């Protein structure tokens, strides 16, 4: 009985939601089927929020590499970190939603590394040092 209820729920589900992360940036991404393609990030158009060509390419990377022809409305809410990490967090969340929507794209996205959370963080500054590892100039006298 539980199998039929889960099948019924999955067919009536209108959108797919996933979370993408990078450094301290977190993106909550929603993917909704639509008649035309649109991309909203924090209630702004995607090309307004991510203004450089590099950031736009990162943001749309999951769509371009999977060659999906169906139109979607993507809305993302991003917080934390810098603009570059936010773009990568959006890509991570978008990739997860695409896999949830269609399992066949998982292989492509996994090979590109879009499904793996990039966990690299900035190392903290230590006491007595100028930066995380840079020591003050040593002098003998």
Structure description:
- The chain has five helices and five strands, in the order αββββααβαα.
- By secondary structure, the chain is an alpha+beta fold.
- Strands 1-2-5-3-4 form a five-stranded mixed β-sheet.
- Strand 1 and strand 2 (25-33) form a beta hairpin.
- Helix 3 (53-66) packs parallel to helix 4.
- The longest helix has 19 residues, at 83-101.
- It starts with a helix and ends in a 29-residue tail after the last helix.
- Residues 1-10 have low confidence and may be disordered.
Question: How many individual helices?
Answer: 5
Kindly state the percentage of residues in helix. 25-40%
Structural class: alpha+beta
Mean pLDDT: 89
Task: Detail the poorly predicted runs.
Answer: 1-10
Name the strands of the widest sheet in spatial order.
Answer: 1-2-5-3-4
Largest sheet: 5 strands, mixed
Radius of gyration, in Å, reads: 20 Å
Can you tell me the overall shape?
A: elongated
How many angstroms separate the termini? 81 Å
Fraction of residues in β-strands:
15-25%
| Count of β-strands | 5
What letter string, H or E per element, gives the SSE order?
Answer: HEEEEHHEHH
Keywords:
alpha+beta; 21% strand; elongated
């Amino acid at each position: 009985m539980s199998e039929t209820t889960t099948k019924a729920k999955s067919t009536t589900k209108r959108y797919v939601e996933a979370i993408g992360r990078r450094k301290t940036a977190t993106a909550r991404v929603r993917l909704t089927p639509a008649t035309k393609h649109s991309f909203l990030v924090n209630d702004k158009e995607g090309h307004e929020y991510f203004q450089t060509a590099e950031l736009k390419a990162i943001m749309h990377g999951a769509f371009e590499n999977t060659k999906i022809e169906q139109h979607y409305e993507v809305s993302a809410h991003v917080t934390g970190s810098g603009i570059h990490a936010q773009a990568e967090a959006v890509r991570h969340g978008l990739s997860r939603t695409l896999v949830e929507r269609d399992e066949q794209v998982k292989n492509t996205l996994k090979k590109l590394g879009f499904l793996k959370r990039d966990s690299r963080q900035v190392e903290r500054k230590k006491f007595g040092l100028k930066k995380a590892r840079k020591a003050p100039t040593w002098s003998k006298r």
